[in-house]
Amino acid sequence: MNYLIxxxxxxxxxxxxxKIALTLxxxxxxxxxxxxxxxxxxxxxASMIWCESLTQRTHVSRVSLNKVIYIATMKxxxxxxxxxxxxxxxxxxxxxxxxxxxxxxxxxxxxxIHQNDTVLIDSITSLLTNEMFVGAEIIKNPxxxxxxxxxxxxxxxxxxxxxxxxxxxDAIEYDEVTENFKRELAILNKELAKxxxxxMECSFGNIRYIKYEEKTVL
Length: 218
Description:
Radius of gyration: 17 Å
Number of helices: 5
Strand order of the largest sheet: 2-6-5-7-10-1-11-12
Largest sheet: 8 strands, mixed
């Protein structure tokens, strides 16, 4: 089952995504709770990777199948971003997520996903930012690489829940770079809406199904 969840800033879309992911997935074993895989350099698997919790460490090979995976894509640029990430991590404590911090190249994580896993990706907007602005270079069509990774994950996992933003309300014409960013996000949202079984919009804590095959009771 694949979900696309769209909403504005602070619309509650991340929390809805977490609830859906946990509802769709069978509970993982207790030893898998709250692990975080961190990688700031790519390729992602160039070195030995460890999964961590606040109080314990275990080698990746000990992590069992049928996981609830949280792919966090946000790259912090300032203290406000760091605080936002910290709050998101704190909110997930005890929810049995295994967190992968993946800022670019989603396809590199596919090998760690199994057919019974549920994968939550939050968010497409942050991922697009990371893929579009690489050092001093501006990538023109990053949506192609992003869609490639997303489709591989959706094909392999039992469930995929994808969180994205809606930033198209105003009629302001921005600079060329910003307009291209908006176009790329629109391409991603449109393509994902086509291939996902369920599409939801979150607004001020309210949920509206735009498209659904089967509604998940939260």
